[in-house]
Amino acid sequence: MADHITLQVTRYRPEQEAEPSVQEYEVPLRKDWAVLDGLNHVKDHLDGTLSYRWSCRMGICGSCGMTVNGEPKLTCATFLSDYAPGPVRVEPLRNFPVIRDLVVEIGDFMRKLVKVKPWIVREEERPLSAGEYLQTPAEMDEYKQFSMCINCMLCYSACPVYGLDPHFIGPAAIALAQRYNLDSRDQGSAERLDVLSEHDGVWGCTFVGECTRACPKDVDPAGAIQRYKVTAAMEAVKSFLMPRGAR
Amino acid sequence: MTASHDVVIVGGGGAGLRAAIAIAETNPRLSVAIVSKVYPMRSHTVSAEGGAAAVIAPDDSLDEHANDTVSGGDWLCDQDAVEAFVNEAPQELLRLEHWGCPWSRQPDGHIAVRAFGGMKKRRTWFAADKTGFHMLHTLFQTSLQHEHVVRYDEWFVTKLLVDDGRVRGVVAIELMTGRIETITANAVILCTGGCGRVYPFTTNANIKTGDGMALAYRAGAPLKDMEFVQYHPTGLPFTGILITEAARAEGGWLLNKDGYRYLQDYDLGVPEPTPVLKSMELGPRDRLSQAFVHEVEKGRTVETPYGQVVHLDLRHLGAAVINTKLPFVRELCLDYEKIDPVREMIPVRPVVHYMMGGVHTDLDGATGLDGLYAAGEVACVSINGANRLGSNSLPELLVFGARAGKAAAEYASSPSDPSPAVLAQARDETQRLERELLNQTGGREPISTIRTEMQDTMEENVGIYRAGDSLGKAASRIRELQERFRSAAIEDHSRTFNTQLTAALELACMLDVAEGIVHCASARAESRGAHQRTDFPARDDQRFLAHSLIYRDPDGPPRVEYLPVTITRWPPGERIYGR
Amino acid sequence: MSGYTEFHPRWYRQRMSTWWWLRRRSYLVFILRELSSVFVAWSVVYLLLLVNAVRLGDDRYREFLDWSARPWPLVLNVVSLAFVVFHAVTWLNLTPQAVAVRLRGKRVPRAWIAASAYLGWVVVSAFVLWLLVGA
């Protein structure tokens, strides 16, 4: 294995330029190094002006999502040696506005997340004195997978529907809605129905399936969405056959 | 530019979000803002793995949890605070369950608890091995219900505004645009976490740079027990990534290079095939880390390109247990060490993990300055004393986050207008930021060089074992680095998401915190818990059954004073493990 | 609701190329899958025309078969067959993601759900074949 590898990094300095450009950096190629370690080497020793987000470096905080050789990846969990001899193209996550260099704006997701009411909705709160809601391991399995979302946005970056139509509510938001819909303690499915069955809700999805492929935590957002389409369709049929008064 | 709120919370992790929810639920009329340098779901709470302790089993009692905590802390814990903590922890974890936290369950649907280091009974609640992740996301998503809580995401607080001994607000930079804003408040709560990045090998994320500790220290509030830095016995060698104590609670063994369970040589018990509470691998973290140092000295550790390690053996647990109870551990080993713990042993070493010390507070999070509160790892109440037991810090976030929130809300309910002096301070800070950082040219030294030297100095001289002369060396080194920082090179003059600027601000915070750690360590002439002096190897309750309080002096070295520990029901005794 | 900037003119908006679907194999497969619906529609139309020809009597039926044997209709039908099979295979493979079945507390493996869908396809096809050839 060679001892260096070239990173081709997107730079965008809004005060100086109208369009992004590419800058090349040569970094050591160490067996244990992730792409993030390469970027840190650039920032610490080659070019302190490179901006990017990172924090936990263990794939749990979701900060370091970027496009590596055309694929959305967590740079802390993507290893340079897998791209040897290189070069490795490092670009900001696709489908989001770029603030600077490799930093993108995720405010759109933050606003959409609130809309799906990602919290336990109860008709009546259980008092603490009554202890915990009982939930068997099987009941937890129903939603557990969807609770693993780290909000890294790789799924939004992979989704061509979101790229073409930013109004689409998107994979992670729907997966998180399902996390609560399927939680035996939650009673809020009816409240989430309206937002999710809008034109830009689940019905915006055409089941490309890229979101699930990109997800680093095996959340399977595509599965969450398709399952909800079945739910939403059933609800539509039910409300047609059994108008509210009769139910 | 000025904004105004009743309560400003700095930091959006477990403690900060819990405080915000507490205020929103009890005083909904108050205007609350959370100012965080990262989006809340990126806060370091997310990385916690093992679990959160609270008494729930019928054969357990609050007294036992308190006793385990006090002895685990080598009697430096304030026992009134510990009693309040163990009393409120179960309710807080239960409240979190009602908010949706997916605690792991027994087959009948009740909450499951597991063993953990230093605890005599099984009382650690857990959400697989991603407890912190689930707690943080539950708190964050629950907080979204309270629409009137304002969030300043990716805003970096650079200074606390103080007027006449009372904190009146903060100055913060919006990272996206570089605009510097003054946010006035009637009360400020610091929830900014610890400072592991002061050391080179740490489980901590990049963002753990002691910002809140430095802010309080510079504003005149004392820091407490800064010398007590916890090394977690099992971190991965290159990255420092945490391998949770739960791996040992499930039955993992620590082996030296001869395949020998070496902890039995260090008065930690007798090896049994299955884990015994408070014995061997379930001993307290300080003793396990110290045992490692001795093994290195005896030449019984394994040499790797990234230093000396020992082995954590999980193979005998079997794939079924590892996949259900420790799935994240398996993932981390596969990704970062290319090792499958089902078949191979994991190389581990002690790495810095937690800061027992922090901003001095009382049981309600009130600090030495009026209007300033602190909760979570940034604070030192103290419930952790000289050594924290695993699974006590997650409930600490909730218990003291809620207490500080309520106390700050009550304080903020009697508001008063900020004086012109406060706004003048804010203007000065804005000008300082512009002059010294944003428009600075002519700096010579890379920030990374100064930072690396600080980290190396700390690891060499203020590590698991310390000595008076090397502490003195460290103190002058830190002083020198603080001088050199004045001419650190900042080449990025952009206003837009300038991470070189934030690196500089964080380094300044870390240097202040390092100063606090070194001076407190130097002054404490005894060994207790995580602070071990080779020149003073014994515990000295006569002189040092007290907290170190360190006050900043802008013109000279900081001043260290002592505050006696509050003892209620557990007089100092011997820490016994494995017997 | 929050203090941060919701819009800034200097953000760079990355454009999605019109040829985005050529960039990845999985995107191309997706577009072909969507396109296959056109051929599914044609198959239905062809079937209706066939039924209509049968209804109109022997001569019209024979004319229809002759017409079907001409080059363009033949090519169209062969291509349609390929796309319809592709359509069926891709959708049957995706079924497990849309359906979560639990048997005795454990999730049924995806492969089994897909296999049962294929089995259903084979059974129905066998029945139709029997109707056409056997009965």
Account of the 3D structure:
The complex is a heterotrimer of chains A (247), B (579) and C (135). Chain A folds into 2 domains: 4-104, Ubiquitin-like (UB roll); 107-241, Fumarate Reductase Iron-sulfur Protein, Chain B, domain 2, CATH 1.10.1060. Chain A is built from 9 helices and 7 strands. Chain A has helices spanning 35-46, 107-115, 137-144, 154-158, 160-164, 171-181, 189-196, 210-214, 221-241, and strands spanning 4-11, 21-28, 65-68, 71-74, 88-91, 98-100, 103-104. The radius of gyration of chain A is 21 Å and the shape is elongated. Chain B is α/β, with parallel strands linked by helices and 579 residues long. Chain B is built from 15 helices and 22 strands. Chain B has helices at residues 14-26, 62-72, 79-98, 131-143, 211-219, 246-249, 285-297, 318-325, 327-337, 393-412, 420-438, 447-461, 468-485, 499-523, 541-544, and strands at residues 2-10, 32-36, 52-53, 113-114, 124-125, 150-153, 155-163, 166-174, 180-190, 223-224, 229-235, 253-255, 302-304, 307-313, 346-355, 358-360, 372-374, 379-380, 465-466, 532-533, 546-551, 559-564. In chain B, strands 1, 2, 6, 7, 8, 9 and 17 form a 7-stranded mixed sheet that branches. A 5-stranded mixed sheet of chain B has the order 18-16-10-21-22. In chain B, α3 (79-98) packs across α10 and α12 (447-461) packs antiparallel against α13. The model of chain B has no long low-confidence stretch (mean pLDDT 95). Chain C is 71% helix and 3% strand. Chain C has 135 residues and is mainly alpha-helical. In chain C, strands 1-2 form a two-stranded antiparallel ribbon. In chain C, a hairpin with a 2-residue loop joins β1 (102-103) and β2 (106-107). Chain C is flat, with a radius of gyration of 23 Å. The chains are: A alpha+beta (247), B alpha/beta (579), C mainly alpha (135). At the A-B interface, α1, α2 and α3 of A face α3, α4, α9 and α14 of B.
What topology emerges from the helices and strands here?
The complex is a heterotrimer of chains A (247), B (579) and C (135).
Chain A: E1 4-11, E2 21-28, H1 35-46, E3 65-68, E4 71-74, E5 88-91, E6 98-100, E7 103-104, H2 107-115, H3 137-144, H4 154-158, H5 160-164, H6 171-181, H7 189-196, H8 210-214, H9 221-241
Parallel strand pairs in A: 1-5
Antiparallel strand pairs in A: 1-2, 3-4, 3-5, 6-7
Helix pairs in contact in A: 6-9
Chain B: E1 2-10, H1 14-26, E2 32-36, E3 52-53, H2 62-72, H3 79-98, E4 113-114, E5 124-125, H4 131-143, E6 150-153, E7 155-163, E8 166-174, E9 180-190, H5 211-219, E10 223-224, E11 229-235, H6 246-249, E12 253-255, H7 285-297, E13 302-304, E14 307-313, H8 318-325, H9 327-337, E15 346-355, E16 358-360, E17 372-374, E18 379-380, H10 393-412, H11 420-438, H12 447-461, E19 465-466, H13 468-485, H14 499-523, E20 532-533, H15 541-544, E21 546-551, E22 559-564
Parallel strand pairs in B: 1-2, 1-9, 2-6, 9-17, 16-18, 19-20
Antiparallel strand pairs in B: 3-5, 4-5, 7-8, 8-9, 10-16, 10-21, 11-15, 12-14, 13-14, 14-15, 21-22
Helix pairs in contact in B: 1-4, 1-10, 2-3, 3-10, 5-14, 8-9, 12-13, 12-14, 13-14
Chain C: H1 25-55, H2 58-69, H3 71-98, E1 102-103, E2 106-107, H4 110-134
Helix pairs in contact in C: 1-2, 1-3, 3-4
